[in-house]
Amino acid sequence: MKAGVDVLLKKPSAILGSSKAGLITNPTGVTGKLVSTIDAFHSHPEINLVALYGPEHGIRGDLQDGILEKHYRDSATDLPVYSLYGDAEKPSADML
Question: Does residue 95 belong to any structural domain of this protein?
């Protein structure tokens, strides 16, 4: 049995087409080989990852609890990160 992310990474164009992709994730989002889904998607030549969305502690778990970070850039990928913590429980039109 394979995790859904591993199935997607095998043939991403069959699932995503050629669309831009945003990823809602947290530090537990990993492939079957324990690679961060952020890094796996970002490095995949067929995935056009353009934005990241995450929880209170950030997509990599490095933000202090209780501190609202509305937008920042992921230091590893330079992608924009939008918080889904606090008032923003789902991505707004501006975030998409």
Answer: no
